[in-house]
Amino acid sequence: MNAGKYKIVGDKIVSKDTGEPIPDDEPIVIIRARDVVSKKAIGFIRAMYERNDIPLEKLAGLRERIEAFHEWQIANPDKLKIPGVGKPFDIEQKMPTPEEWEALTAKVRGR
After folding, report:
1. Cα angle at 28 between 43 and 51, to 5 degrees?
2. Is 104 exposed, middle or buried (0-12, 13-18, 19+ CB in 10 A)?
3. Buried/exposed code over 77-95 (b: 16+ C-beta within 10 A; e: otherwise)
């Protein structure tokens, strides 16, 4: 499931909205749901946007990604990995609950 802002066209990553490809010399990061800290990373990005007064309606896509990652991780705990290590990860013991996650992101937002 890729409901993001980009798509692959040939050997390029292209904006779905503008059709503009990401230049070959521009660094990018791809965050996969199997990365055990992926939800935290996206949540941190969202919190930083909030701190910079980006309207919440513009952040809805990030919240949807966090929820989609959470659902995928719960459904696929055997596929979770620590990047670069490849070691399986026990999501039930290590990841915060949705309530704990909200409290953590609220701290980052300074609320």
Report:
1. 30
2. middle
3. eeebeeeeeeeebebeeeb
Q: How far apart are CA 21 and CA 6, in angstroms?
A: 9
For the whole model, what pTM was predicted? 0.64
Three-state DSSP class for residue 44:
helix
Task: Output the CA torsion sign for 92, 97, 103, 104.
Answer: positive
State the number of CA atoms in the 13 A half-sphere of 72 facing the CB. Answer: 17
pLDDT higher than 50, residue 1: no
pLDDT: which is higher, 63 or 104 = 63
Reported confidence tier of residue 4, pLDDT bands at 50, 70, 90? confident
Output the DSSP codes for 94-108.
HSPPHHHHHHHHHHH
How does pLDDT run across 69-88, given as a tens digit for each residue? 999 999 998 888 877 666 66
Taking the C-alpha atoms of residue 78 and residue 33, their distance in angstroms, rounded to an integer, is 12
